[in-house]
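Before going further, learn to read the protein records used in this course. The integers have meaning only within a learned vocabulary of local backbone shapes. To see the layout at work, look at the sequence and tokens printed below.
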Amino acid sequence: MGRDVLNHPEIETFLVLAEELHFGRTAERLRVTTGRVSQLTKKLERRVGAPLFERTSRVVRLTAIGRQLADDLRPLVAEMDQAVRRAIAAGRGISGQLRVAFLGEWTAPVLLRAVSLFNRRHPDCEVVVTEVQLSNSRASLLDGSVDLLIASFPFDGMANGPALLHERRMLAVAADHPLAGQASVSLEVLADHPVVQYPAVTSAAFKRDRTPERTPAGRPVPKGPSGNTFSELLTLVALGKGVLPVGEHTQRYYPRPDLAYVPIHDAPPIERGLVWLETNTTARIREFVRAATDANPLPDRRDPGSAARLAPTSSPPR
């Protein structure tokens, strides 16, 4: 939109006030006076031709027109911000620092291959590798302490790249569990045993995928206790508190004598790949996703040369 219609200070002030609904806090965030906030707000309202806020001595509320304007402007401003970030990154080249994290030991080799190729292609960009846990994986992306995370799909509300790792699903059970000696089981057995639960902060779509509420036939799945880390979840299984669907790499990285891993013959494979905050999409992230895809080819990948699917998926990892 042109400057003759709306200018940037008015838009910024309006959106912050729409979020805070408080002139004082808005002024603090923008580092201006409350008078300046009021002035810009009134100026925008004159241009719109209608009130955007209802003001009383106690509260500030958005009007219906104000709410609609805020809803319309937020994605536009986010897109503008991304465009500027991409332009800055392109102008500077691939440099600076990129913070990448892994969730689960079995994802580390995939990530390290990606880091190695990325470093060869972009030696001026430092890659810092860290580990996150189930309890803080999403928070690390949201607070900016991590730029990219390799985890299992689906992961709600995040952008994600192509799958870098496929693995069969297996059912973790206690070593003395009646299912421990089976050659394989069906997803239907989940209705017959409590299923250990992931922590509440875990992606809702991931939990529906990994610990569904119903079997494919529609039978309810009983819920067992929850844990905060993957090791805790497996310990609950070993204690006989429930069973847990996992990926086949778990038996290699967690070979415990008190656990057994039974293949689930009718379950789709687990996919793992890179996820990130969509508004944090930069040239560095795009190039790292490309390097990760090239460094970890999958035999059934339909488009091995593709970069990332940059739109947030309705249900991505952990």
Remarks:
- The first strand starts at residue 53 and ends at 55.
- Residues 64-92 form the longest helix (29 residues).
- The CA atoms of residues 58 and 128 lie 48 Å apart.
